[in-house]
Amino acid sequence: MSNHQTFQLRLFKDTDLTSVNRLFTSVFGIKRSAAAWHWKFQENPHGKSIILLAFSDHDLIGHYALIPRKINLFGSLKNAYQEVDLMINSKYSAGGVFRKMGKHIYNIAGEQDCPFTFGFPNQTSLPAGKRILGWRAIGSIPLFTLLLNPIDFLKNKFSNQEINKNHYSIPDKIYHRIISLRFRSRKKTNQIKIFDNQTVRLLQNINRGKNFYFEREEEYLNWRYFNHPDKNYLIVCSGPDPEPEGVAIFCHSDHQTQIAEFELKYSEDYETAKALMMAIYSDALKRQSFAIRMWMLESDPYVSMLHSLGFSPRDSKIHHVIRSFMDPESNRLIWDPERWYISSGDSDCV
User: Fold this and answer.
1) What is the C-alpha separation between 248 and 57, in angstroms, rounded?
2) In angstroms, how far apart are the furthest CA atoms of the chain?
3) Residue 163: pLDDT above 50?
4) 284-305 pLDDT, tens per residue?
5) Could you say which DSSP state residue 296 is in?
6) 82 in helix, strand or coil?
7) Spatial CB neighbours of 205, under 8 Å, sequence gap ≥ 6
8) What is the average pLDDT score of the chain?
């Protein structure tokens, strides 16, 4: 595409949904239902999303969205936006679409007294965002993985290669016996069907002394985990009733178990951590998952615990980035990764 080729920007209309999901499939290789789109962009209890589209003639060539997210910032509740679903037709990637869409949508966000936008781009899009739109990367987030069936994992990763199981030297029974011993705990767990007051309080209060963290009140948690049209989340608590000492939220997809939340009342409570992991591990085996996975900031104190429980960071890595509209002194503080608390997450809704 020539850099002089023109395109037009406008906000999303309901009639654009089919074209948006078609572009989503083209860019990410994933089919998304209309129900999943409505859940993500129209049913969020924190407010209305900003969705900007780019057209060349009548063809949709670009999409840039911000979803609202309440954040506790310097002890005050603010309305920030998370950048999601940045999509540009590959034929137009060199035509300034990214730059023009970003600047336009930042103007809209700034008019709404937004302190900053944030996102979690991969290593491919990070350099362009830093160079063109002023993203500031404040922390990397590796994908920590515990393999449950290494052979199936390799077959899934290298689907065109023949994998000989005899090349794997540790018998499955011994391997899983080691995992079971690692997760053995005196504490019990129970699955919950709704977010009760005690569980909500635990998730709200776990910020580990950080200055900046996202609000997770009952309405938001129900939307995030119980109202999702395409995912079935399981929620497990550990500790004496009625006050849980830990909670884990996870789901299963594509033969993997992804942990979305893993929170402890006391950050060094290994017994509760092991009890929760045993519950996740047992359910993963029933569903024939080949791996348990969890995104986590490299600076998070739970990282050492994950290593001790057998998790290791894989090649996949995303980054926590911020595009700030605040003054330099405030920026100095929010760019410090040690001041942030980010839950592990399993999607682009934190």
Assistant:
1) 48
2) 67
3) no
4) 999 989 999 999 888 787 889 9
5) -
6) strand
7) none
8) 87
Q: What is the pLDDT of residue 1?
A: 43
Is the distance from CB of 163 to CB of 154 less than 8 angstroms? yes
What is the CB neighbour count within 10 angstroms for residue 324? 18
**What is d(CA 159, CA 152) in angstroms, rounded to the nearest whole number?**
10
- Give me the amino acid identity at 106: Y
| Strand 291-295, strand 256-264: pairing | parallel
d(CA 156, CA 170) in angstroms, rounded, equals 19
Residue 229: per-residue pLDDT: 93
Say yes or no to pLDDT of 165 above 60: no
Is the distance from CB of 250 to CB of 257 less than 8 angstroms? yes
pLDDT at 122 over 70: yes
Strands (E), the chain: 8-11, 50-56, 59-73, 76-88, 116-119, 136-147, 189-192, 212-214, 234-238, 246-253, 256-264, 291-295, 312-324, 340-341
